Amino acid sequence: AQSVTQLGSHVSVSEGALVLLRCNYSSSVPPYLFWYVQYPNQGLQLLLKYTSAATLVKGINGFEAEFKKSETSFHLTKPSAHMSDAAEYFCAVSLTNAGGTSYGKLTFGQGTILTVHP
Amino acid sequence: GAGVSQTPSNKVTEKGKYVELRCDPISGHTALYWYRQSLGQGPEFLIYFQGTGAADDSGLPNDRFFAVRPEGSVSTLKIQRTERGDSAVYLCASSKSSGTGAQPQHFGDGTRLSIL
């Protein structure tokens, strides 16, 4: 079975500081990995995705994530936080079979609420 | 272009009533997904469609929940004999295909369902 763990339900940073949101997955076959952001009363917006190409993935709004198979991690980072980054962030995995075909459904972590203070 | 549209945005009803939640996916997207998000939790998978057929309904919690997609576009999630525990935000997502695995899912803003 696959699972996703996001370490830290709340992260608080100062504006301009580094943002680091942690995500670890458990899967016997490397999955497809995604980060989504959710603003209050809105749906989820895709930030970036890992689909077995480059291990360092760049997304929107200056975010990036690095896939580390040895650590089964896919942490999200941004060098300098903006006030507008305050939101809830979800890591998600899409399990694949040995042939690389996805089963479709996403399994999400519990989410990390990012607070940015002046 | 238009994104995933969900209606209604909010639904309040009494315990025991029947509700229907509608999802209009992005045009051309063959895969459609339903998720349920409880307060303080990540979304949980309910069901997904590839075209008109339900390819995986393993997330439906019980037989009170049912979903259809008769023409391969709009989908309706139906909940019978609603219970207070059904209160949540129901999210719909669509993607070009689920088969490749690499296609990201695009989400609607959700329907906030409250059972009194």
Q: SSE order of chain A, as H and E?
A: EEEEEEEEEEEE
Q: Which value, in Å, is the CA radius of gyration of chain A?
A: 14 Å
Helicity level of chain A: under 10%
**Class per helix and strand makeup of chain B:** mainly beta
Biggest beta sheet summary of chain B: 7 strands, mixed
Low-confidence stretches of chain A: none
Overall 3D geometry of chain B? globular
Mean pLDDT of chain B: 92
Q: What is the radius of gyration of chain B computed over CA atoms, rounded to a whole number of angstroms?
A: 13 Å
Largest interface: A-B, 28 and 29 residues
Q: Biggest sheet of chain A, in brief?
A: 6 strands, mixed
Order of secondary-structure elements of chain B: EEEEEEEEEEE
Strand content of chain B: over 45%
The averaged pLDDT of chain A comes out at 89
Provide a brief overview of the structure.
The complex is a heterodimer of chains A (118) and B (116). Chain A is an all-beta fold and 118 residues long.
What attributes characterize this protein structure?
heterodimer; A: 118 residues; mainly beta; six-stranded mixed β-sheet; four-stranded antiparallel β-sheet; 49% strand; B: 116 residues; seven-stranded mixed β-sheet; 11 strands; 0% helix; globular
